[in-house]
Design goal:
With 230 residues, this protein is α/β, with parallel strands linked by helices. 26% of the residues lie in helices and 28% in strands. The chain is built from four helices and 13 strands. The strands form three sheets. Strands 1, 4, 7, 9, 10 and 12 form a six-stranded parallel sheet that branches. The chain has a five-stranded parallel sheet with strand order 2-5-8-13-11, with no helix packed on it. Helix 1 packs antiparallel against helix 2 and helix 2 crosses helix 4. The longest helix has 26 residues.
Length: 230
């Protein structure tokens, strides 16, 4: 930001870019949660570049509030750009839980076919931050007196083809249309005195972003009311 433009009015895009810098600083441990929340409130109250500049002055991108450099994350982008999340070699092709448990979560690459087995145990297959080896992923679940839970992000189509004997498969997320280019997840197998659950959730980062958007909208409405009162 140049010194001759401190009074130039900031746009919503400028405020959002500064907020992204603060999120990155929080993730890297440069800011604690209290500092992050204080600065974030100031971001959404800011009217000019001069208001925004001090909020990132002591961070690696200081002086670039109008065009900060994005933080390079190893996590795949979450959203409608599915092309960036399809392709590559699978990092895991199965899971076993015998009187115990297993998890597949975070950044990993789901295979075309993932086989999992649970006996007196349970497993969690979290696809929210996953990449996909192909456009279609088959998760074959066998649960005997146990269970498994599959978590998918919004936009992914779910098809359930498994069956249960004194148990069952969750069909609650079946029939929700997928986004263009998004992978399709097919659940197969069987559950004997057990169950296979399906949940659709956003990532923690996305949940935080939505929370910040609601907070920004509330602050903007409050500022508008104050301007009208003044």
């Amino acid at each position: 930001m140049t010194d001759d433009l401190p009074e130039l009015r900031a746009s919503d895009a400028d405020r959002e870019r500064v907020a992204e810098v603060l999120r990155d600083a929080l993730a890297e441990g440069r800011l604690d949660m209290e500092e992050f929340e204080e600065r974030l409130d100031s971001v959404y109250k800011a009217r000019t570049y001069g208001d925004l500049e001090p909020l990132t002055r002591d961070l690696p991108v200081a002086g670039q509030a109008a065009a900060p450099v994005p933080f390079a994350s190893s996590a795949p982008a979450v959203g409608s750009d599915w092309s960036a999340r399809v392709g590559g070699e699978a990092t895991s092709r199965g899971g076993v839980a015998i009187m115990g448990g297993f998890q597949r979560k975070g950044v990993w690459t789901a295979p075309r076919r993932f086989n999992c087995f649970a006996f007196w145990g349970g497993g969690e297959i979290d696809l929210r931050e996953a990449r996909f080896e192909d456009r279609e992923t088959v998760i074959n679940c066998v649960a005997v007196m146990g269970g498994m839970n599959v978590i998918v992000p919004p936009g992914v189509e779910v098809v359930v083809r498994g069956f249960g004997i004194m148990g069952g498969f969750d069909h609650s997320e079946e029939g929700v249309p997928g986004e263009p280019g998004a992978p399709r997840v097919i659940l197969t197998g069987f559950a004997l005195m057990g169950g296979i659950g399906v949940e659709r959730k956003v990532t923690r980062a996305e949940k935080q972003r939505l929370k910040e958007e609601r907070r920004r909208a509330k602050l903007e409405k409050k500022a508008e009311r104050k301007e009208l009162e003044d």
